[in-house]
Amino acid sequence: MKGKSNWDYYAVKIIKHIIVDGEPDPNLIDEYYDDDDRQLFEESVVLVHAQSYGHAQKIAEKKAVGDESSGPNKYGQQVCWKFIKAVDCFLILDELKSGAEIYTCFHTASKDETADEFLEKWFSGSEDSL
Predict the structure, then answer these.
(1) 76 and 27 in contact (C-beta within 8 Å)?
(2) 89-114 b/e with 16+ CB inside 10 Å = b?
(3) Which residues pair with residue 69 across a beta bridge?
(4) Nearest to 84 by CA among 21, 42, 29
(5) d(CA 79, CA 119)
(6) How far apart are CA 94 and CA 101, in angstroms?
(7) Could you give the 3-state DSSP secondary structure of residue 101?
(8) Mean pLDDT, residues 101-106 taken together
(9) Sign of dihedral through CA atoms 84, 43, 123, 78?
């Protein structure tokens, strides 16, 4: 096994699905509530210290699964953050600290679009680069 001094930093792009379940409490709805029948996906890039691209992907996936969470939003609906997939990996040459999020982006999709359809639409071909 390589010593940690030989490891490199990688940025791994991961996709999470933010699932909102249930009807909002009518007494809690305010001017910011949006009921537009769309789903929300998060694209984020996390920094990982690893031996290889494959090792970096495994580390990022384990972290993303561990970060899955759920709880109520301010409208009384249950919100679940679910890891879907690691879609890309980049070798970082600058000296950085492991675990720092360096990029994030949110995507919307129609309510009837599956996670697989979303991945195909936005990230087709990304699997080959891992």
Answers:
(1) no
(2) bbebeeeeeeeeeeeeeeeebeeeee
(3) 81
(4) 42
(5) 21
(6) 15
(7) strand
(8) 70
(9) positive
Indicate the DSSP class of residue 68: -
Confidence label for 129 from pLDDT (cuts 50, 70 and 90): very low
Handedness of CA 110, 40, 79, 115 (dihedral sign): positive
Model pLDDT, residue 95: 62
Instruction: Give the total residue count for the chain.
Output: 130
Beta-bridge mates of residue 82:
17
**Which residue do the tokens 């995507």 mark?**
107
| pLDDT tens string 47-89 | 899 999 999 999 999 999 999 999 999 999 999 999 999 999 9
Provide the strand spans (E) within the chain. Answer: 8-21, 38-50, 69-72, 78-92, 101-110
CA dihedral sign, ordered 96, 99, 100, 104: positive
| Side chain identity, residue 66 | G
Q: Cα–Cα distance between 16 and 80 in angstroms, integer?
A: 10
The whole-model pTM stands at: 0.69
Q: Which residues contact 4 (CB under 8 A, 6 or more apart)?
A: 49
